[in-house]
Automatic annotation (TrEMBL):
The chain crosses the membrane at residues 224-247. Residues 279-288 have a biased composition (Basic residues). The keyword Membrane applies. It comes from the Eukaryota. Keywords: Membrane, Signal, Transmembrane, Transmembrane helix. This is Secreted mucin. Residues 263-318, 335-362 are annotated as: Disordered. Residues 1-18 form the signal peptide. Residues 335-349 have a biased composition (Polar residues).
């Protein structure tokens, strides 16, 4: 006991190593081996990873983050923390972002084994104070990741931050800070006081737990299913609106095309009616210029298509006159009496289209 106090006094006054933190991660230090090397390492190096804090004025900050791809390569991380004989440890879980199911059960978890084989399993940090552990003997820590269960989204991560601080008995007249007022062996180095990192339980070294801690994301399967269902309904509604808009646009195009065709038909019908009117007017004008004695027949079709089907009366051969046929009768009538006008010797009466004079002798 006397030797321990001398060591503490020498370290306190001389400050051989100086106060501060060693920042480490679990992968580069070999605390978290990959899954393919777990079985091989169990035969080659069966001993567990042991971390010894030999400097009472320096702490260790472990911090590790896994993304949606890297966490699948690791399944279990085990290591043991211990310090010099006669000293103890404070372990504070500063950040912890692991998964829980809908019932609150841990998918990934951290196990801390303290004095007398006392085990504590957890997967989240309280919202009021960080989770803290104190031990006078070596402290065993195990981190298990369920690499079979994928993360909810690609952007999600798993994160853990541990702060390990050596503690020892308080010696009057030395630069120490007492974390717990009524606990004699709860002193830490004075350099940890108000340094922005929580070292003592209940955040006594920082004047109280006033720092907002990160909340653990809990994957709620019911919320995920509800979100997917709402997204599906929204997508179906959007597709329905697009189809309805295309249908309305198609009807508009059809009606516009039919209206254009109707206008073209009306214009064409008007031109045909005008052409027929002009034809009727020209035909009526032609009838008024004809002589009254000529019988005209209006046939359907244009005037150019009307052609005479028989020769005219002037072109026909007329029968010979009566005098040419009966010359004796004309001479007898001249000798017997006064001169009379005979129909045989009279000028030839032109025949009309209505009828012609027939010879009674025929």
């Amino acid at each position: 006991m006397v030797q321990y106090k001398l060591i503490v006094l020498v370290a306190a006054f001389c400050g051989v190593y100086g106060a501060g933190y060693d920042r480490q991660d679990f992968i580069s230090t070999g605390i978290c081996p990959t899954r393919r090397n777990v079985i091989l390492d169990s035969f080659l190096s069966p001993h567990k990873e042991i971390v010894i804090l030999s400097d009472l004025h320096r702490g260790i900050i472990y911090e590790q983050t896994w993304n949606s791809s890297s966490f699948k390569r690791y399944s279990e991380c085990k290591f043991t923390l211990q310090t010099l004989h006669g000293a103890g440890l404070y372990l504070l879980v500063r950040k912890l972002q692991l998964r829980r199911d809908a019932k609150g059960n841990c998918i990934d978890l951290v196990t801390v084994k303290q004095d007398e084989n006392k085990k504590t399993r957890f997967c989240y940090t309280p919202t009021d104070v960080p989770r803290s552990f104190s031990s006078e003997s070596p402290m065993k820590i195990t981190i298990k990741l369920d690499h079979y269960t994928p993360l909810p989204t690609v952007e999600d991560t798993l994160q853990i931050q541990l702060v390990v601080t050596p503690k020892y008995e308080c010696v009057p007249g030395t630069k120490m800070m007492k974390c717990l007022p009524y606990v004699f062996d709860s002193c830490i180095d004075a350099s940890f006081h108000r340094d922005g990192t929580i070292n003592c339980p209940d955040c006594a070294d920082e004047g109280g737990c006033q720092v907002d801690l990160e909340q653990v994301y809990v994957a709620d399967k019911q919320s995920i299913a509800l979100t997917a269902f709402v997204s599906l309904l929204f997508t179906m509604g959007l597709c329905g609106c697009c189809i309805w808009g295309l249908y309305k646009h198609r009807r508009c195009i059809t009606s516009c095309g039919s209206n254009s065709g109707t206008r073209n038909n009306n214009n064409g019908g008007g031109a045909a009616n005008n052409e027929a009117g002009r034809r009727r007017a020209s035909a009526h004008h032609g009838r008024r210029t004809q002589s009254p004695g000529v019988l005209s027949v209006e046939l359907p079709g244009s005037s150019n298509e009307l052609r005479p089907s028989a020769p005219t009366l002037d072109e026909k051969d007329l029968p010979p006159s009566y005098d040419a046929l009966f010359p004796i009768a004309a001479v007898a009538s001249t000798a017997s009496g006064p001169t009379t006008v005979s129909t045989a010797t009279s000028p030839t009466i032109p025949l009309t289209e209505v009828g012609r004079e027939l010879d009674p002798t025929k």
